[in-house]
Amino acid sequence: MTATAQGYVTVIWDAKARPGREADLKAFITAAVTPSRNDPGNIDYEAHEVEGRPGEFVIYERWETRAHLDSHLAAPRMRELVPQMLGLIDGSIEDGIRLLRPFRPAN
Question: In 11-106, which ranges are continuous DSSP H helix?
Answer without folding.
Answer: 22-37, 66-74, 76-86
